[in-house]
Design a protein that fits this description.
This protein is an alpha+beta fold. The protein has a domain of 109 residues: Immunoglobulins (Immunoglobulin-like). It has 3 helices and 8 strands. The strands form 2 sheets. Strands 2-8-7-4-5 form a 5-stranded mixed sheet, with no helix packed on it. The protein starts with a helix and ends with a strand. The relative contact order is 0.14.
């Protein structure tokens, strides 16, 4: 009777042990075959790169900065008055011992006595000028030597015919000989007149 009970108890214990082992094996198998949550979980999308995002600050700054005001238009300069064309020309040179109120020689001649104190030269011009310079150079020819007696310039401004008078004076007697007056306009010789001083 005792032997049977022990055999029965041993059998029961063996079966129980096998069941436990079987259960443990299934549990381990289930654990090994269960998918890893981390490996099968979908990968979180990567954050959008910052380089592709538009720079909001630059746009905001550009919008906030007011455009520079356009420079004020300068008033158009008044057109310059047309320059007066300089068409002045010397017409004639007249010598004499007296002039009238119109500045023209009233006693025309080309031979003078040594005692005549003043000799005149009237220079007639034609045309227009806003400002020109007439010059009269008086010279005395003594053989091979030329001596300047007088060199005088006058400024003139005219819009038509005009007369300019030049003169030379000598409180003493003039030396006898040949003389000449050369007229220049703005430095260019434009005429001359020869005369003589001699005793009558």
């Amino acid at each position: 009777m005792k032997l049977s009970f022990r055999s029965s108890a041993l059998c029961t214990a063996t079966v129980a042990g096998l069941l436990v082992l079987t259960a443990c094996g299934k549990k381990e198998e289930q654990q090994n075959t269960a998918p890893a949550a981390a490996s099968t979980a979908p990968t979180a999308p990567a954050a959008a790169p910052t380089a592709t995002a538009p720079a909001a600050t630059g746009t905001a700054a550009a919008a906030a900065t007011p455009a520079a005001p356009a420079p004020a238009a300068q008033p158009a300069a008044a057109p310059a008055a047309p320059a007066v064309a300089d068409t002045l020309k010397v017409g004639s040179v007249t010598l004499g011992s007296a002039v009238g109120s119109d500045k023209k020689v009233s006693k025309e001649k080309t031979t003078f006595s040594p005692t005549e104190k003043t000799i005149y030269a009237s220079v007639a011009t034609e045309g227009t000028t806003a400002g020109a310079t007439l010059n009269a150079k008086w010279t005395y020819q003594d053989g091979e030597t030329t001596t300047t007696v007088s060199d005088i310039s006058q400024s003139i401004s005219t819009d038509g015919p005009a007369v300019t008078t030049f003169k030379i004076q000598n409180p003493n007697e003039w030396p006898e000989g040949k003389y000449k007056v050369t007229v220049s306009l703005n430095g260019q010789a434009v005429g001359n007149e020869a005369f003589e001083i001699k005793k009558k």
